[in-house]
Known about the structure:
Number of strands: 11
Shape: globular
Distance between the termini: 50 Å
Bound molecules: 5,10-Methenyltetrahydrofolate
CATH class of the largest domain: Alpha Beta
Largest sheet: 6 strands, parallel
Low-confidence stretches: none
Mean pLDDT: 96
Helix content: 25-40%
CATH architecture of the largest domain: 3-Layer(aba) Sandwich
CATH superfamily of the largest domain: NAD(P)-binding Rossmann-like Domain
Structural class: alpha/beta
Amino acid sequence: MVAVTLDGKATASAVKGELAQRIAALKAQGITPGLGTLLVGDDPGSHSYVAGKHRDCAEVGINSIRIDLPATATQADVEAAIKQLNEDPAVTGYIVQLPLPKGLDEHAALELIDPAKDADGLHPMNLGRLVMGIEGELASPLPCTPAGIVELLSRYGVPLAGKHVTVVGRGLTVGRPLGLLLTRKGVDATVTLTHSRTVNIGDDIRRADVVVAAVGVPHFIKPEWVKPGAAVLDVGITRVENAETGKAQLTGDVDPAVAEIAGHFSPNPGGVGPMTRAMLLANVVKAAEQALS
Ligand SMILES: Nc1nc(=O)c2c([nH]1)NC[C@@H]1CN(c3ccc(C(=O)N[C@@H](CCC(=O)O)C(=O)O)cc3)C=[N+]21
């Protein structure tokens, strides 16, 4: 069997097309949504992701505001930049690109983001609202990668209600909030959240109708662990240097042989990454709409 590809690039394009219409409606009312990014240091991966986010903004008609700080920036520099983004009326929503360079306090930085401008949904108040299952007006913006995963599965008709999802990785941006999202009323999956200290992880993966790999270990998920027909999403990515060319190569968390066992498979790149970016734009548009009402 060859798995159906969960094409994140094409799906993200469709999402962006829908957002462009909502952005046009906002502009007709005199409002242009703005996405801010704060990037600290010179990690090439982070630079490439942030550049992608600004390209997306240009494509759909969102203003972008970019603050880049050198690797030598202090915690006070980072906090001053956050204050500036909180106060800038052109910024509807923004993100602090993670990880911050060693020595800087990410949790302290996230706490300082104005929760109403938190385009990642990673402020403690917004994560708390997600835990509490608050809906409507006060609902938190959803963390972008988890929201992108749920949106991608939904657009391909992969069911989640009553299904068993095994999430591999408990990080702040993917695994931990994904568990919260998948178990919400209306999504209704049963989740096993696994991590580096899980014993016999293959057993947890073999039970799953949907496997989400977000560990950052190249080709960690083995074909013999996957139930035939399961949906497998490859989220983690590692830059591995090619021994011959010396060029950095992107390698996902899933062994490519899994594509022959799975029923649906999201590649990396071209899978969840573009969806993450589309959900970020969606959070900014939603924040602009809410500021209006
Ligand atoms: N505050 C914060 N929010 C984030 O959402 C966040 C973050 N920090 N830190 C790093 C991770 C990683 N991340 C990606 C987003 C898009 C792609 C993406 O679009 N990837 C393309 C390839 C891009 C390339 O070639 O470099 C793809 O998968 O096809 C990848 C990774 C967001 N993150």
